[in-house]
Amino acid sequence: MKIYAPWEKAFNKISTPFEDFLHSQMTTGLVLMLMTITALLLANSPLADTYSHFFHMKIDFNVGEWKLSHSLHHWINDGLMAIFFFMIGLEIKREVLVGELSNIKVAILPILAAIGGMAFPAFIYMYFNQGGEGAAGWGIPMATDIAFAISALVLLGKRVSPALVTFLVALAIVDDLGAVLVIAIFYTEQIHFLPLLLAGGSFGVMLLLNRFGIHAILPYFIVGLFLWFFMLESGVHATIAGVIAAMTIPSRPKITPSSFTHHTKELLDEYDNYPLATDHTMHEKQKAILLNIKETIDSVGSPSARLEHDLHLPVSLLIIPLFALANAGISINFSSVGEVITQNVSLGIIFGLLGGKILGITGVSFLAIKLGIAKLPQGSSMSQLLGVGALGGIGFTMSIFVADLAFAGNETLIFQAKIAILTASLFAGLLGYIWLRFVAKAEMSSY
User: Fold this and answer.
1) Residues 6+ apart with CB under 8 A from 221
2) Quick one: CA dihedral 242, 243, 249, 251, positive or negative?
């Protein structure tokens, strides 16, 4: 069958899940940049008070005497961001099971690089802040914003090898896992054990659903809501519930690919047995067969892969931009920026994200390669790894998230941290892009 539809060629191109992932991250990066600029403009305009009051507006849920009341800012950071963390959990699980992290020989370099890229910034931050009021912020420069970093790398096109892009993706996934563990372990002030026990029970129920082969999403969603609520009440940050819940979503399809082929052929043969009506409409039995085929197609894909695909768009275009709009709006007195930048918290974050990430990612990678523990990504160079290390200094989303946790209630330190995060992320992105675009582009030989 030949269909003349030249405008649909781009839409009909079959892409891999990894390509979908890269495109969604690039989209997130671009929208994130737009929302950040919008938030900064609003916070420094005559609409600043309206902007602030809007995100501090209370939203209540009442059932009888029970009441859950938080500001819109809180609902975004603790509620919607749990969906973002859920998607991170799905990505981590996919990478460990079938992605770059499933083969230890391939995974060892990004794992070691990510560990170095988390440790060095934390040490540098503590050098400036140990014993001071900003000491709790050591986790801020550990994070890498996967959307911005990958966007910069994808924009370089064929100037960087596909293996280098894969290296950054794997590194960012390990970095996200590290950030999740840091939030769960070190940024929990007080634990309430009964809600935590109930959260553990909810997680156990979700594991049982997986064990019993339940592939429908609804049961996981319902129990996941209880898991999120109990985690919120326990004192452990509620977004951790998203990562935990993701671990329980089935990664195996309901039917095997071979069974899918056999069953689909039988259904198509049965479909052809019914003659078309005179008005070219389908027989009722044919409609039922098509529904059966659709269910079969859904069954050959795993729920985790389906959810990861379905969530990328709303997370990329709604949740992360909303987070940026709610958190990046800083009222800046430009005459005092110089003073703010020279504070210990700011210096720790800036030097941590810029210098610490380059030292950690590039330095540890260099040692691992020299010692024969790992191999350089195919078609790349150490100079290009240095550029990737610079891109790793784009902290933004996760860094702002950790700053709000580390300095909760201290608006002065949160302000210093956000100014430093924006400054460091901007320069890290520019440095990484310029380095890879103009300096490292010709160095494509193996090290």
Assistant:
1) none
2) positive
Q: 192, 65, 92, 104: which is closest to 146 by C-alpha? A: 92
Amino acid symbol at 398: M
CA 438 – CA 444 distance, rounded (Å)? 13
Residues 285 and 262 in one domain: yes
Tell me how long the chain is: 447
Of the listed ranges 75-89, 248-262, 332-346, 415-429, the least confidently predicted one is 248-262
Strand pairing partners for 61?
Answer: 68
Contact present, 108 and 355 (Cβ < 8 Å): no
Report percent pLDDT > 90 for the chain: 45
Structure tokens belonging to residue 187: 């940024």
Identify whether the C-beta of residue 82 lies closer than 8 Å to the C-beta of residue 228.
Answer: yes
Return the percent helix, strand and coil in the chain, to nearest 5. 75, 5, 25
Rounded to whole angstroms, the Cα distance separating 141 from 67 reads 36
**Among residues 139, 78, 147, which one has the least CA distance to residue 402?**
139
Among all chains, which residue has been given the structure tokens 């030292």?
359
Question: 288 and 386 share a domain?
Answer: no
- pTM greater than the 0.90 cutoff: no
Same domain, 31 and 62: yes
What amino acid is encoded at 245 in this protein?
A
In a shared domain, residues 172 and 294: no
- The pLDDT tens digits of the residues spanning 263-303 come to 777 777 777 777 666 556 666 777 787 787 777 777 777 88
- 3-state secondary structure (DSSP) of residue 71: strand
Exposed, middle or buried: residue 17 (CB in 10 Å: 0-12, 13-18, 19+)? middle
Of 147, 257, 245, the closest CA to residue 202 belongs to: 245
| Of 380, 382, 385, 392, residue with least CA distance to 427 | 392
- Strand, helix or coil at 114? helix
Kindly state whether residues 269 and 327 are assigned to the same domain. no
DSSP result, 9-56: HHHH----HHHHHHHHHHHHHHHHHHHHHHHHHHHTSTTHHHHHHHHT
Nearest Cα to Cα of residue 85 among 192, 232, 195, 252: 232
The rounded distance, in Å, linking the Cα atoms of 43 and 86 is: 30
Give the distance from CA 408 to its chain's centroid: 23
Cβ atoms of residues 309 and 18 within 8 Å: no
Residues forming beta bridges with residue 245, ordered by sequence position: none
Claim to verify: residue 285 and residue 355 sit in the same structural domain: no
**SS3 sequence, 202-260?**
HHHHHHHHHHCCCCCHHHHHHHHHHHHHHHHHHCCCCCHHHHHHHCCCCCCCCCCHHHH
- DSSP, collapsed to helix, strand or coil, labels residue 416 as helix
Cβ partners under 8 Å of residue 436, min gap 6: 153, 156, 159, 160, 384, 387, 388, 391
